[in-house]
Amino acid sequence: MANTMQFDLVSPERALASLQASAVQIPGADGDMTAMPDHAPTITTLRPGILSVEAEGGTQSYAVTGGFAEINAEGTSVLAEQAIPTGDVTAELIDGLIATAAAAAESASAETKDAAAKNLADMEALKAALSI
Amino acid sequence: MPSLKDLKNRIDSVKNTRKITKAMQMVAAAKLRRAQEAAEASRPYTERFNAVLGGLAASVGGSDSAPKLLSGTGSDQTHLLVVMTAERGLCGGFNSNIAKLARAKAEELTAAGKTVKVLTVGKKGRDAIKRDLGDSFVGHVDLTEVKNVGYDNAQDIARDILARFDGGEFDVATIFYAKFVNVVSQIPTAQQIIPAAFEAAEDEGASTLYDYEPSEEAILADLLPRGVATQIFAALLENGASEQGARMSAMDNATRNAGDMIDKLTIEFNRSRQAVITNELIEIISGAEAL
Questions:
Q1: pTM
Q2: Contact B213/A42, CB-based, under 8 Å?
Q3: Which residue numbers delimit the ATP synthase F1 complex delta/epsilon subunit N-terminal domain (chain A) (predicted)?
């Protein structure tokens, strides 16, 4: 793999990954995107989904619940609100997140109703994608 | 003059106290290390977050459509003071220093004719300012049950504050916490979180032109509430480290004082014992002479 870039994944509580990656698939708010080296500088928000990183040692994937990604010439950094390696995600954990999202959608005001409903749908899609 | 028995008891009691303070000091030292690690681990996120948000705020901030969280409500009549302290005492001046700073700020604002509302995080801060500002309390966040402060806790506090802001309950929010410098020094700090105040973005970061997905405004509107949570989380972690640092040095002092006291009491004990012996001798000798 000749062409790689720096990839950082950080959550508020700790830094989860910092490595050389050849491509990063990001669940952007407006749709999935793949960042490769020399991608145009972009900042995008994340929706709940699966982030996967292609690196020399193989592909790693993480379930993220939200946050944003910054892509520039030096590399890609993802600032996730919560990020868990997909292998460590348990059904209880995801159900808890869905319950929280559902409660938020329930109590959302008219303005934020759509966003909350989308968040809930994305959470459920995330659960389906993880197939647990 | 206390009897020998009394002195003995007092020495024993101070020795027990010294054991306890010594143990507390060591526990605080271990917790401090953990708290510092947690603060360290959160730093990359906070730094990057602020860099991105600062850049965005600089480019969108000037326009009229800027979100209220950034530009403010247009007035600064009602202030919300978020006083963050520890749940436990016995940590020197830690809690009272934060409370003192908050109280001074509240007085200053009241003197300027502003309305002050207080939200407390941590039991000790609530107790400390209840007497002076009890009427302006709007809420209290209890973290007694929380062992390790996580981002979730910060999010809950942020959600509470944001709901109040959306409800028009206040115009400006300031958080009070202690910044950790080292074990002997923690600086009580006031930091304005709403409207968001940013240090000027660095030239380097601002020079890159980013594509935004979705729009700049949408991202900003999404990030600002997270920014509040991030700042609160950072403050909680700093506070955690400061609390343990303050407790460690307070307990170190207490241990040393107990040691001094034991020395003093021991000297007094030995003197009285000697006095008793001398007395007895005098009695025997004078009794023998009288015969």
A1: 0.86
A2: yes
A3: 5-83
